[in-house]
Amino acid sequence: MESIVVISDICKRYHKQEVLDHVDMTISKGDIYGLVGKNGAGKTTLIKILFGLSNPSSGRFFICGIQNDDVQIRSIREKMSGIVEQPAFYPYMSAYENLKVHAILCDVYDVQKINRLLELVGLKDTGRKKVRNFSLGMKQRLGIARALLTDPELIVLDEPTNGLDPEGIIDLRDLIKTLNSKYGITFLICSHYMSELEHVINKVGIIKNGRLIKEEKIDKIRSGLITTVHVKVDKINEGIELLKDRGIYVTLQDEELCINESAISINELMTIFSQNKIIVNDMYKKAGTLEQYVLKFISEADEK
């Protein structure tokens, strides 16, 4: 598949501090790529390098096949657009007026296009309402409309769900899916909330202390997620010992025994507890989540 962005061995140092440490990353055309990591992990620094707002200390990257030291890189960046941190607007202007100013600056002013974009992001009916009176979710959608003015192939969003309520998060997620599936736009979304990304991304990169410690397709991760059986019993310690004696790995979470679903059948489990006079008060299955996968991977990286 054609690559939109290829990052190769990128490093960034500030006063001897390694902010990015030999990062390799690939974003293919049509991806919704989630870059996940804690605050300070290096996500925003990497975005700034792609946009030319900062230079790498070493390494190289390619945008649509053009290397970062090529004279064409400036013009090729016109195929990128996005929001780094919070979108900024003229607060005393309407949504339309803000887009008009930006379109004129980019030499792409088109009344019909602005109206079409406002309709696409659900802001067509805001009329003369000033942006200072917009909710954060509305401002995020206006930021995406502004990013779309130049017909980009890649849109970069940095922590787009920060401060949004659940409805705002769903609206933004649906908009990203529509732009990707209907218009073929590739996305790079940076966040420290995997739970908000897992419903929209198809590929994830996990960054920790400036290092990309894992890059994987979401479908592959999901196929390997473990479903656990959670059991609430009246004799916790006895229950744990019984299972351990049979070679079954068990952990304790919130006063519940947690067992890998593949380790033992529900019928066998119930038989063991019944024969040993242990009362089962509750039992349910819990599918593994991508957030758990990310946290586990980061935790394992800490131990190495």
Question: Summed up, what is this model?
Answer:
The protein has helices at residues 43-50, 73-76, 95-105, 111-120, 136-148, 166-183, 194-197, 218-223, 236-245, 266-275, 290-303, and strands spanning 3-14, 17-28, 32-36, 58-63, 66-67, 80-83, 154-158, 186-191, 203-208, 211-217, 228-233, 250-253, 256-260, 280-286. It is of the alpha/beta class. It starts with a strand and ends with a helix.
The helix-and-strand class reads: alpha/beta
Roughly how many Å is the radius of gyration? Answer: 24 Å
Classify the beta-strand content into a percent band.
Answer: 25-35%
> Largest sheet, order of strands side by side?
6-7-8-3-9-10
Q: Assign a percent range to the helix content.
A: 25-40%
Series of secondary-structure elements, N-terminal to C-terminal: EEEHEEHEHHHEHEHEEHEHEEHEH
**Strand elements, count:** 14
Mean pLDDT, to the nearest integer, reads 90
Shape: elongated
Count of helical stretches: 11
Largest sheet: 6 strands, mixed
Low-confidence stretches: none
Distance between the termini: 33 Å
Could you explain the architecture of this structure?
This protein has 304 residues and is an alpha/beta fold. The chain has helices spanning 43-50, 73-76, 95-105, 111-120, 136-148, 166-183, 194-197, 218-223, 236-245, 266-275, 290-303, and strands at 3-14, 17-28, 32-36, 58-63, 66-67, 80-83, 154-158, 186-191, 203-208, 211-217, 228-233, 250-253, 256-260, 280-286. The strands form 3 sheets. It has a 6-stranded mixed beta sheet, sandwiched between helices. A 4-stranded antiparallel beta sheet has the order 2-1-4-5, with helices on one face. It has a 4-stranded antiparallel beta sheet with strand order 12-13-11-14, covered by helices on one side. A hairpin with a 2-residue loop joins strand 4 (58-63) and strand 5 (66-67). The protein is elongated and about 80 Å long. The relative contact order is 0.13. The model has no long low-confidence stretch (mean pLDDT 90).
